[in-house]
Target: Signal transduction histidine kinase regulating citrate/malate metabolism
Amino acid sequence: MRSGSSWSLARRILALQAVVLFVVLAGLLAAVLVDSDAETERATGERVASIAAAVASSPDVVDAVTAPQPAGAEISGPSAVMQPYAESVRTSTATDFIVIMTPEGVRYTHPDPTQIGGTYLGNRAAALAGGVGIETYTGTLGPSVRAIVPVEQDGTVVALVSVGVTVDHINELTNRRLLYLGLIALGALAVGVAGSLIIARWVRRQTLGMGPKELARLFTYYDSVLASVHEGMVLLDAKGTITSINAEGRRLLGLGDAAIGRTPAEAGLPAHLAAMIVDPESLTDELVLSAERVLVITRRPVEVRGTVVGAVVTLRDHTELDALTGELDRVQVFSEALRAQAHESANRMHAVISLIELGETDHALSFAVEEMQTAQRLADRVLEGVGNPAMAALLLAKSAQGAERGIDVTVRAGSYLPPHAAPDPELVTIVGNLLDNGFDVLTTVAPTDGPRSIKVGLDVLGATIPGAEGVGGGPPRPDPPGRRRRCRPARAVRADHRDRHRPRADPRPGPVGVQPGLVDQVGQGAGR
Model:
């Protein structure tokens, strides 16, 4: 799914982060530049003021400006003493000029000796008043930041000292600092772009290279599919946590919005159902009994580049179909039993007709009456012994069916199943399937020429077949410890009665054809 735009979400994030990072760094550099100029001028003013104060307080300077000088040497005399001192201090302090002057502004010292004796260019009022003056002024060396302080003796201003740094020198220092800041900013930009690339690649992997429109369209389709499918759908992440569930899934499982973000077990599902939903293996049309329904579950893992990132579980309501299948099974059981009884009745009727044709009317009458009485006594004895009418009817029908196939069906002594001990339809289905399995074993899987019989034992806990005589088998082997027996697919339940006369590989009789959940339902009914 690709849109017309070649800009994926990852590229958009990378471009946005790069632009934001560049703008932030440029703004920081501009702010540092503006603040650096003002801060540098302020710091330079304070520095030259402290240097000027130190020079003004030097005893050599005080002595030189107050010592008597011969006529005509009022400037040259002190200058000869102070010029070397001033230049030495200027060099050591990295300033551009140190000018010592008279209160009237006549220079004693200057970096340019030709300017000695000239008039100082700048404000002297603050210094003459005994204070410190700091200003930016254009003098003989160009614009400079300078400070001027008084040289006092006994409270009288006897000279002035001015120390300054040219603006060009200040700008040179500022540019050097900006170069360092620029290099730091470029390094930060490089690190930021590298981090953005890493994030962009991660986003690209997570979004499969799709752009915002593609993601929005995909989410719309995804939401529409979840809402429109008639099957329940549950989406899980790699940890088995429910990330989404559609309306049909909520209805079938009895869950609400609170289930999102929880595992199936934490959401309150039965343990066997929760285990099947989070089972890492693929499942196809597995039958499972929930609290109120028979569900068919299909589970498929979701893989991205070979890594399992979650699973999709679909649910179908099999309750009504299961009930219809069970009803069909019961009808088929009785239909086959009636067919067997009809076959026996036809044989007996032929015998009666033949006796009548032979003139043995009395014999024919006694034979018919005896057969009817025998059948009625058998029905009464079975009903009295078993107790449950539906089960008695099933056993009579299966007895006739077994007799047709040469198998005796007997009820174990002491068997009794009270009426309404369990739901009749489920009992008929379970016991009927068990007897059919026994017939299959004795006639198809392991046939024998000797006597063949099946003994049925009934009590309030259900029905059992202790053994099928005539074969070397017995009851089904129990599952090994730790092995979980799974429900058979729905198609197997419907196929059992149609295919039960085909040979089976396992010679031991097993409960084939019993719908999952019926045994649980019978157990619940017996416990009431």
In short: Residues 462-528 have pLDDT under 50 and may be disordered.
